[in-house]
Specification:
This protein is mainly alpha-helical and 504 residues long. 76% of the residues lie in helices and 0% in strands. The protein contains 21 helices and no strands. The longest helix has 36 residues. It is globular, with a radius of gyration of 22 Å.
Amino acid sequence: MPSRRHGPRWTFALVSAGGVMMTLDVTVVNVALTDVARDLGTGLGQVQWTVSAYSLAFGALLLTAGALSDRIGRRTVFVAGMGLFTLASAACGLAPDAGALIAARAAQGLGGAMVFAPTLALLAAAYEGGRRQAAIASYALVASAAGALGPVVGGVFVEALGWRWIFLVNVPVGVLVMAGALTRMPESAAPADPGRRVDVPGALLAVGFLLALHYPLVTGPEAGWTAPEVLVSAGACLLLGAALVAGGRRGGGLIDVTLLRIRALTGAALLGFLARLSSLGVLAFLTLWLQSTHAHSPLRTGLLLLPLTGSLLVAGMFVNRLQKAYAPDVLVALGFAAQGLGLLALAAAGAGAGQAVMVTGLVLLGAGGAVIFPPLMGVAVGAVPAERTGTASGLTNACYPLGTATGVAVFGAVFSGRLDGGLGAGPAGAAPLREAVETGRFELLDPALRPLARSAFSGAFTAVCLAAALVCLLGVVAARTLRPVPSRAGASTTRRRPRAPQPS
């Protein structure tokens, strides 16, 4: 058992290591898809499910894992998740075919959700007051930087060691994190209530609801929004959601839906959804645009994104100071405003404004993200009773992959529509041309068609950036939900302060 003196430091280090691993595995695989498809002898479309399977499983279990950690122990869930994630990583690295790889990636997602869901609750239990704010801000910075560095890290491993090592490297790291958590991280859980059992039906409902919610967003762009599996999943989502709410209202359930009545918590969850939608939802199209317009390798493309990563790191170093001076709603609104301006700059770059404008856009996008997430995380765990912070953490974290999936789906529709319009204006708007253009493979086209293809692609990318900028405007307005609601006596009804305490 760690001492009180060193326990918080170990908790932060281990939670951050877990956050880095889980976040990296969301983005690190994208640059390896072509190599995986070639090595396993399968189509690129099937191998893309290595990304989708992880995201679906990860998003589906987050809420349940967070609520379960309040019952059986947050460290317990964290260690169990890390164990599953480590074993699944080994299975990914050794996968003999695409089917085995997809199954192992789904298991990775389940383990990742168990690791990620209780993180904010673990930090909230280890720190108090201003130190809690600093810890959450630093954790958000580390995790966000890991996500942004995913394409770079993936490019290095794919080119130097092969795609299997992007999974195998998780094995020794995972073992070390588990050993550290068992020996250095104190347990954190609500006091045991012998009259309150684990609500297994509620847990299954939560998993089914989030899975049914994510599935149409992941498969809709490719299968079509009117495909039977998409419509069935959407209908199941509505039914399971209604059952989940009804069960939560009866009380005693694993998922306490009464927490949704807390305005600050629901606001933080909504704003986290919007922030991921407008950032990581655009990242796939940004990466594709860089690869297609500059004809760079995966590693070079990752390096071109360093202005985004660097600004995120630099801005993140000042977030804790900003939280001591400004209320969460002000910081979040400023973060969305910065991201919106960055997206407008990227839209201009897509229209031919030049590399300086592109770099400016990336810097603003990264700085805005650094400012948005730490206040949201602090509000989420500060607005609920201490014994429900795991549930609050899981709820907030569940909105992040949902925002990413929604962004990819919505912006994918915008991209496709604008691309069809651009190609339809010319005489060669045929299916083979479109298939080559939408993946940025201009080298497959006749040289005479490449100007039209590049113009259509850039126009589609610009449309995506403009749509994401509108989402950021919505985020600026929605940041008002983080303001405390004054009571009749003029006092705040929010459990935690609306403004961070001033330094002593």
